[in-house]
Amino acid sequence: MTPLDLLDRRVATAFYGRFNTVRHSQQEVIEPLINGHNIVLTSGTGSGKTEAVIAPIISRYYHEAIVNNDLFLIYISPTKALVNDLLKRLQPPLMSLGLQIGIRHGDRDDLKTQKLLNILITTPESLDVILCRKDTCLNKVKAIILDEVHILYNTQRGLQLSMLIKRLQSVVGYKLQWAALSATVGKVSFVRDFLMGHEDEADFFCYSSERSIDCQIRHIRHLPELRHLIERLMSDRDRKLHSFLLFADSRKECERLASSLSSSAALAPYLLVHYSSLSQQVRVETEEKFAALNSAICVATSTLELGIDIGDIDAVIIWGCPDGVESFMQRIGRGNRRSNKVNVICLVPDNSNAVFLELIKFCVLIDSSTKGIMPRKEPYEFYGAVAQQCLSILASEEGSFVKSSLLYELTEHLPHVGKLEIDALLNELEQNEYIKKHGYKYKYAAYEKLFQLINLRMIYGNFSLGSKSVQLNHESKNLGEVPEINLLKLNKGSIVRFHGKYWRVKKLSPGAIHLEPTENKKNPVDFTYPGNSRTTDPYILDEAWKILNSDIEFDSLFEAKVGNYFNTLRTTARGYFKETSIPCFRSLNSTRYYTFGGLLVNRAIALIQDNYDFEADDISVTVNSPIHWSQLSDDPNEYERIFPRLFDKAISQSLFQMLLPLNMQLHEYLQYWLKDEATRNILKRLKHSSPVEISQELLSKLGLA
Question: Distance between CA atoms of 598 and 601, rounded to whole angstroms?
Fold first, then answer.
């Protein structure tokens, strides 16, 4: 008897009938899920996690669902695009089983248009909406699936989802069965602890990707070089590479690359663009075209890191080094799912601040991905989403008073949130006139400012605050949206780049920018987007430092010329970048220390020794007074007194974080520091190191001056 034999025969046929083999990871989770266990399943992109969990859960509840025709399963995904994609994937097998599936997000609500649903796919924010309107369809839910949870882990949205599940369990009156799906994480139990609480029993299944990485790192000196590279790859009959996904780290860079590639007659017919500012209609059109074309090049931001089905990709091209291992692994995981090998080309553009440093960082990312090693970050202790959920519950009562004990129950699974914290939070919200307190009892109700949030539909989300947006329209079609501040940069007749094309501004209005196609490509205005400042994960920087101090060879990763360049500079640097040294450059009035510690560590080092006039970036800190390294503590808690200045304007906040008492805001900031294993390792290394002077000439040669 095999695990597949445990499934209802009809369910097994619907999900696995067309496959000759079923992956080991898919078989392993069948029995625990059939028996009602909770699980966390982590594995690489494209490994069939969705089918692995949904088939046994449906099999467990199938007979009851058919008889009673209830909504029994909620599938939660972090983005609308993924919700739409899951519907397309799951609808055929579910319809063959006689089950009705629908979706609910900001653009579509099947709960209102379809009378009976058995399975609902939704986002955390939409689940909040459904709970707030007290929809009776939730009363018979039996199980939940949490998809792509690495996107939600250690985020306010993830904490919101955690409390929404508790609210849903209060509605149904029993513990729900759950399954969490994730890409590889540092420690799989952390996912359970953050989302469900450490006391929730669960089985853990962790599988690394079965594919090897065929990777090459190249240095691109100018954009024509990129065009020629892709032209050569597409015309190489031996390699048979036709479908490419080119990742860039910003929307602006996406447009710049697309504009350059479109100037090639050989590439222009195959060029597509995908990023978050494009309208849903345009993004879906792009995804469908990319999946249908035999030859295509799609320039994208992180919007295509997740598991949206865009067909087979022959090679992934990464333009510039991503700031985290998770992002890199998601990107390379999109490539060549037909075989056990993924083709990856990592490109270091010449406009990088330091080509040598970028090459080292790529070595870290490839090495970590090959070994399946992820940064270890313990579950963060957040409060912002707690404030949002308290307000969401009060909003759902439409002005009626709610006992504070109900709000205490909301966070019983969170070890850092108890009665004292909830009371302090409620007091702050009352003082700011979002809620009002009953005169005689511990009860609260919605008040003036909360009703304003409800009317503006701002109550349900934990996204960082950004600028207001305006639509980009061509005739009657919505192309996408950009921040409203761009209205100040444009005039009628201005030329802009968007969606990989050139447009002329036909008309400006307060709510929209009206565009028409143009052949004029001179002096285009690039749109401004907030939030493009980048900081590298301390894990990458710490590992980069280790590479500078090791003899590990990376020759196989490089194009020949780039490899020679890398090895020459690495050998030169090794005499100064030693395990217990801190290279430094002294000028007349200041000293620059090369710590490879990350922005926050470097800021903290300056502030803890009362250097207020300083400059800091990912790899260095420049101060007027010498740093006494042996006096630094390697205990992050010792730095608490400088945290208000350390995090000043460093991290964007959601509305609900801004409503917190100041001590709670500070505590949230501490998490990015206290719960990061790499940060602790860096502080320990620096405390036991000594400065070594390095010349301006060598720094210039390394690109670090």
Answer: 6
Q: pTM here?
A: 0.89
Say how far apart CA 41 and CA 29 lie, in whole Å.
8
| Whether residue 562 sits in one domain with residue 643 | yes
Q: Where are the beta strands (DSSP E) in 522-653?
A: 581-586, 591-594, 614-616, 620-623
The amino acid sitting at 646 is L
Helix (H) or strand (E) holding 672: helix 662-674
Place of tokens 């009776």: 136
- Inter-residue contact 426 to 401 (CB < 8 Å): no
Whether residues 321 and 250 share a domain: the answer is yes
Closest CA to 248 of 279, 281, 273: 273
**pLDDT tens, 313-338?**
888 999 999 988 888 888 887 765 55
Q: Judge if 68 and 187 occupy the same domain.
A: yes
User: In sequence order, which residues have a C-beta less than 8 Å from that of residue 163 and are 6 or more positions away?
Assistant: 385, 386, 389, 410, 411
Write out pLDDT tens, residues 261-294. Answer: 999 999 999 999 998 888 888 988 888 888 888 8
Buried b (16+ CB within 10 A) or exposed e, 81-90: bbbbbbbeeb
Give the chain's domain count. 4
Tokens of 512: 């929209």
What does the radius of gyration of the chain's CA atoms come to, in whole angstroms?
A: 27
Look up residue 698 and give its two tokens.
């060598």
Q: 280: Cβ–Cβ under 8 A, 6 or more apart, which residues?
A: 80, 81, 84, 107
